[in-house]
Amino acid sequence: MNPIYCLLNPFNAIYKLFLPFFLISVYCLFYSETIAISIQKTLSYFLLYLIVPNYFTKLYREKGPEILRNIIFFATTILLISFIMIFISRNIVYPVGARYQGILGNPNGLGLFCFFTFILFAIVTRMHHNLFTSSEVVFIYLLIIISLLLTGSRNSIIGVLIFVFFQKFYKISPFLGVLMLILVGFLVEFVGNHFSVIVSSLGLGGFFRVSTLDNGSGRYVAWLFAWKHVQENFFIGKGFGYDEHYMRSNWDLLSRMGHQGGIHNTFLTFWMDFGLVGLLIYLRSYFLAFIAAAKKTLFAFPILFAVTFTAVFESWLVGSLNPHNILFLLILTLISDDVFYSEEEEKAIIVDDNNEN
After folding, report:
1. Could you write out the three-class secondary structure of 136-195?
2. Which of 164, 152, 141 shows the shortest CA–CA distance to 112?
3. Burial grade of 172 (CB within 10 A; 0-12, 13-18, 19 or more)
4. Residues 6 or more apart whose Cβ sits within 8 Å of residue 235
5. Residue 272 in contact with residue 230, Cβ under 8 Å?
6. Nearest to 272 by CA among 231, 311, 308, 309
7. Which of 168, 269, 331, 336 has its CA 20 to 30 A from that of 342?
8. Contact, 221 vs 215, CB < 8 A?
9. Helices 174-201 and 300-313: crossing angle, nearest 10°?
10. What angle separates helix 343-356 from helix 107-127, to the nearest 10 degrees?
11. Gap between the Cα atoms of 57 and 61, Å rounded
């Protein structure tokens, strides 16, 4: 019998939802300008969605909730080491003139790591009330929140607030959660137009780096630059890695315009790499995965809103070798696969919901 089949059997269904996207990504290889890199990234992305959910469920079947505890402690250890390094070798985690970046080497990257760890820990403690002691819960939450605030990552901080905010309303009523989403949608433009004034009046102008808001820390330059190029490959793109190739080819021009780096928008990056057709196919799989999870837990849509928000300002969802996409798949697997929902756990969740309401 095939050893891979034995390793992963029974297969987790998440990868099946994304099969149409993998097909269009292979088709885009015929237009690639960096064929060797594109093939590697395409294969890497497919293996990510095939192996991570399946291996995660396999470990849970073998080790039970203990594997969840180990994952949380592993993530917590990374944050703890980063924090301790402030007092041992500050320049490593706090480069001169830069924000707190921990041992991950990037403040926004560490912010996203805190964001996903926060959500994962919230789900795990919700599903397994006795997996962590009360002191461990308090310590881990404090470590995540302090680390997140030290990074100054507006994107990740607001993402956590979105998750917590909508989670509360969906516990009361999914219908109320939808109404709040609509209301927040109307408030976004107002808050966006007056954000600088609001945070400055609260004395948080320095923390939220108000001086960089007008140009979006260079993101608006990247978005406009990428959007203009998208018109040249509107419906079908040139495959994984094309966005990096194009932005690096224009590094000098972008630097003079005030931006260094990538596109910093997952969906615009998908559009450049796979065209509108590829973007729509991916979004179809993306939303279907959360809709399926919503049948099992009220966490699904709050996570969807928060994750989508962070993806608008960072391109982490396009990469296969960053910790954020791996954590995202762990979370998506945890809330959607039946193996994580024993009868006892479901009863505990229902009782907890009734107590809160």
Report:
1. HHHHHHHHHHHHHHHHCCHHHHHHHHHHHHHHHHHHHCHHHHHHHHHHHHHHHHHHHHHH
2. 152
3. middle
4. 275, 276, 277
5. yes
6. 231
7. 168
8. yes
9. 40
10. 100
11. 6
In 3D space, the residue among 174, 68, 184 whose CA is nearest the CA of residue 122 turns out to be: 68
Per-residue DSSP letter, 133: -
pTM for the whole thing? 0.87
Amino acid at 82: S
Spatial neighbors of 106 by CB under 8 A, at least 6 apart, are none
- Per-position pLDDT tens, the chain of length 357: 455 555 556 677 899 999 999 999 999 999 999 999 999 999 999 999 999 999 999 999 999 999 999 999 999 999 999 999 999 999 999 987 788 999 998 999 999 999 999 999 999 999 998 999 999 999 999 999 999 999 989 899 999 999 998 888 777 666 666 666 666 555 544 444 444 544 455 455 454 454 554 444 567 788 888 898 899 889 999 999 999 988 888 777 666 766 666 788 999 999 999 999 999 999 999 999 999 999 989 899 999 999 999 999 899 999 988 999 999 999 999 999 988 986 444 444 544 555 555
Alpha-carbon dihedral 78, 79, 81, 84, rounded to 10 degrees = 180
Q: Residue 55 has which token pair?
A: 């291996």
| Secondary structure string (H, E, C) spanning 220-235 | HHHHHHHHHHHHHHCC
Environment class of residue 188 by beta-carbon count within 10 Å: exposed (0-12), middle (13-18) or buried (19+)?
exposed
Look up residue 248 and give its two tokens. Answer: 């690096």
Q: What are phi and psi of 133, to 5 degrees?
A: -75, 165
Question: What secondary structure does DSSP assign to 9-47, as a single string?
Answer: PSPPSHHHHTHHHHHHHHHGGGG-SSHHHHHHHHHHHHH
Q: Radius of gyration over alpha carbons of the chain, in Å?
A: 21
User: What's the CA gap between 64 and 339, in Å, rounded?
Assistant: 10
Find, among 23, 140, 10, the residue nearest to 83 by Cα: 140
The dihedral through the CA atoms of 16, 20, 25, 27 has a sign that is: positive
Query: What is the rounded CA–CA span in Å between residue 156 and residue 310?
Result: 6
